[in-house]
């Protein structure tokens, strides 16, 4: 599944929703009612969550490729630039919208 496909986005959103739902319920069970208590408790929640739900990688080898371009080249590669003119009211149009 491609990372930007609707299926992948649905998986990520479902995972985030599950995590948010579980986090709130666990906080309620622990009696946490302040940000300070939540921040102090969060590290132990993450450790426990990962212990219960983490899976080993399908391939133990790191399959990432090194970046061969410089950071300046990457800025050019990932930048979308278009020229625009400002009107007298200092607005501009993009895709026929102000």
TrEMBL record:
Highest taxon above the source species: Bacteria
InterPro entries reported in the protein's UniProt record: Integrase_cat-core (IPR001584), RNaseH-like_sf (IPR012337), RNaseH_sf (IPR036397)
Record-annotated Integrase catalytic domain positions: 1-74
Protein name, entry field: Transposase
Native species: Acinetobacter baumannii
